[in-house]
Amino acid sequence: MFTDSLIRLAYTLYFGKLDPRALDPQRSFARTLDGIDPVRALAEILRAPSLAEAVEAYAPQLPAYRDLKFALARCARGSRRAASGELAGGAAHGPEEYDAELEAAVERYQRGNGLEADGLVGRRTRAALDASVQARIDQIRVNLERMRWVAQNLKGDYLVVDIAGFHAQLTLGGRVAWSSRVVVGRPYRKTPVFRAALRTIVLNPSWNVPPTILEEDVVPKLVKDPGFLARNHMRVLDFAGHAVDPATIDWARYVGRKLPYQIVQAAGDDNPLGRLKFLFPNPHDVYLHDTPAKALFEEPERAFSSSCIRVEHPLELALLLLDDPERWNAETLRAAIAIGETRTIPVKRRVPVMLLYWTAQARADGTVEFHPDLYARDAQVLKGLEAPFRFSLPRRAPDDKRHT
Fold first, then answer.
1. Widest distance between CA atoms in the chain
2. Mind listing the pLDDT tens digit for each residue in 256-280?
């Protein structure tokens, strides 16, 4: 029984208790023993001077995991205010004493919980404040499990998009080289969780309107407003790439049906993809891109897209990925964009792009940043954590060739 428990513990720390593929079969993250011989590993654990240290070596060796684990211990010991961190110094306030200190504390709490930091205790802020200590503990447990699922992938250079946190960052040589606010998919057009290798950058991209947007948005607009295409610099093409006169199409016929045409919006200032697109081939047809709608980055909850990711600072990211200062710097890249021609450029840094989903993260100052469960995914993970343990065989990700 002891040996069995020991194996289960090491397995859970290394892979996570749950098999994420059971929750989402389309996940594409490495899940391998990476050369570990289980029999030899067990013998080494049993011979180790410290059993606890030997087992802990199988847990993710990530500062983010360690900090979140410490936060879990603090949260389990503390009260609601200590857990959420909205008050500093243990100051006491009466119900009528909403002074500058308490307002600043509310703003800190709002920033740490993905809320608009306006210092006002409105409906959403009150709902977050009313979250119980147990709810926050469960939220941390869920995200520790998510880290175990992907820890093997968080090595070397990589670009991570935190969907629930509306944030992206590029890690190079063990440090954060770039970070940005992002806009992600609406709850009914979710941004998927997966990993793929970034390969090219497109300057002045045109936009092939996705089928879902065609069926749900564009065609209904065309029925009411035939001039919609011309005003938005859009063309209709057949699947052979030949232009089709939109006036010859009975758009009402295709409401709620698959459209046998493509609609393409030309590159330009009003193109939804902006001036830069970052491609990492994947079955979801998801990518990162610039956007003309810059004001949306000021929103605390930035779920406005149709599953692709809009990036606030794309130019800086492009220069880091091109990694060719003799040919590409801010001036030469802006000049190439200004020409207006669509151009595809291979990147020198073919980093893995990982779209992840964190609803709790520990910050450098020891506090925890909680995010709303945008796609209502936490409950399913928590349910699995409470269920009996089951082994699942590890496997390498389908496209894995050492993540290149």
1. 80
2. 888 999 999 999 988 999 999 999 9
248: its two tokens: 């010859």
Judged on CB neighbours under 10 Å (0-12, 13-18, 19+), 193 is buried
Pairing assessment for the beta strands 175-185 and 309-311 based on DSSP bridges: antiparallel
Question: Do β-strands 352-356 and 158-162 pair in parallel, antiparallel, or remain unpaired?
Answer: parallel
* Catalytic residue status for 289: yes
Whole-prediction pTM: 0.85
Reported as a pLDDT band with limits 50, 70 and 90, residue 401 is very low
pLDDT band, residue 123 (cuts 50/70/90): confident
Domains within the chain, CATH numbers bracketed: 1-155+374-404 (no CATH), 158-206+269-350 (2.40.440.10), 207-265 (no CATH)
Active site residue 308: yes
Of 93, 233, 242, 308, which is the active-site residue?
308
Give how far the C-alpha of residue 288 lies from the chain's centroid of Cα atoms, to the nearest Å.
Answer: 11
Which among 167, 289, 371, 403 is annotated as catalytic? 289
What is the H or E stretch that residue 133 is in? helix 133-150
